[in-house]
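Write out the 3D structure for:
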Amino acid sequence: MPKAWEKLDLQGAGVQSLQIRLQKLQKKSLRSYLYWCLFPVGAHRFYLEQPWAWAFPLASAGVIMLAFLGLIWGAIGLAVVLCAVALRDLSRVSLWISVNNKELRKASWFAQQTPAAPPNHQGRVNTGEQLAQWQRELQDYTQAKEGERVGHPATNAPTQKGFAPGQRRLSFAEQERLLAAMTKAPKSVLGQEPADSAKK
């Protein structure tokens, strides 16, 4: 199914427009890792809005300056430190992406421009006859459950046993006896009503 409708911005203040804006603003994994390849200038930290991003271009400039001045070992040492920090950042890129996107979603959902509920909105309210009907059903259910407690036989309990509507269900032992009788009975009488189902 084509997903062109997901990119259709209705220019409203609802959830659909908010989701489209979030998709545009959220940090992408592929782009973050591609920016990491430019770690000498700290592109990945600038993209993910992490602190100390400016330290990478300064360190890279220091490496170039030391190499230009002939301090090769100093330049190599600083380059090794820069690469070690970049490798450490590589292991944390996915965490930074999730944290950044989470904060972005929170800021978008709880922003002042996010539409609130209409004035005088009270949610789903049951009033009038519908409320009285639910109250009656709740009372009937409560009375039925109260009658099912131990030592309190249910009122108007059906006395006819069986599987038809309005009949009392067979107990586990009665069902076992019924199955045993059905397996022992000849096939000609299997279509007849079992004896246990006629008991009261």
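The chain has a mean pLDDT of 75.
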